[in-house]
Specification:
Blueprint (H helix, E strand, L loop, with lengths): L8 E7 L5 H15 L2 E7 L14 H9 L8 H6 L2 E6 L8 H8 L12 E6 L7 H14 L4 E2 L4 H4 L22 H18 L1
Parallel strand pairs: 1-2, 1-3, 3-4, 4-5
Helix pairs in contact: 1-7
């Protein structure tokens, strides 16, 4: 019996990260989607302030900017190219970053170009109880306005067991301490959901 045809999957992983945590999660999401057979575009969102105006004396900010120098800037065409979309943001006290908000607000919502696409969201941990859940829910609400089919994060991703996890901010722990396993699983689920929905 011939193997069933599996359609090509395009997944865009788009994120904003100042200190590197959200970027590390985005890379793990991209890995998970690729392992599920998707073609992936990993894209970062530009900051609102010019680099020289935004706390450039911080060593972690400079290191993150250098680390991400090879990651292309996100464009709205990346959303149109993708069958599946994963959006990542720091948990800014319960709301998505202004950078991601601006990016979404600039998408072509009235034309319905994103309707029917599958999407999911992720954010870096926050020490503020409830901030991560509120951030993810806000991102989901924004995506629903674009008519996408949302694949919610697993409950464990919205309610981390450890409340000592930090936000994408100037704490002392290193990005290597992040648990990237749920992010890889999210990328895989997103790619497989897109295949089930449009395959």
């Amino acid at each position: 019996m011939a193997a069933a045809y599996l359609p090509a999957m395009n997944v865009a992983v788009i994120f904003y990260s100042l200190y590197g945590d959200t970027a590390a999660l985005a890379a793990a999401v991209a890995d998970g989607a690729e392992l599920a057979g998707a073609t992936v575009r990993l894209r970062q969102i530009a900051g609102l302030a010019a680099p020289q105006d935004r706390w450039t004396t911080g060593e972690r900010i400079r290191a993150t900017r250098e680390h991400l120098a090879s990651v292309p800037q996100a464009r709205h065409d990346d959303l149109l190219w993708a069958d599946g979309i994963a959006l990542g943001s720091p948990a800014r006290y319960g709301t998505m970053s202004a950078e991601l908000r601006r990016f979404l607000d600039g998408a072509r919502q009235p034309s319905g170009d994103l309707a029917g696409k599958v999407a999911s969201v992720f954010c870096s941990p926050s020490p503020v109880e409830g901030a991560q859940r509120a951030t993810l829910q806000g991102m989901i609400a924004s995506l629903l306005n674009h008519g996408v089919l949302v694949q919610p994060p697993a409950r464990a991703a919205m309610d981390p067991a450890s409340r000592t996890a930090r936000r994408d901010g100037p704490a002392q722990a290193s990005p290597g301490e992040l648990d990237l396993t749920p992010a890889r699983a999210l990328g895989r689920r997103l790619a497989l959901a897109q295949r089930r929905t449009h395959g």
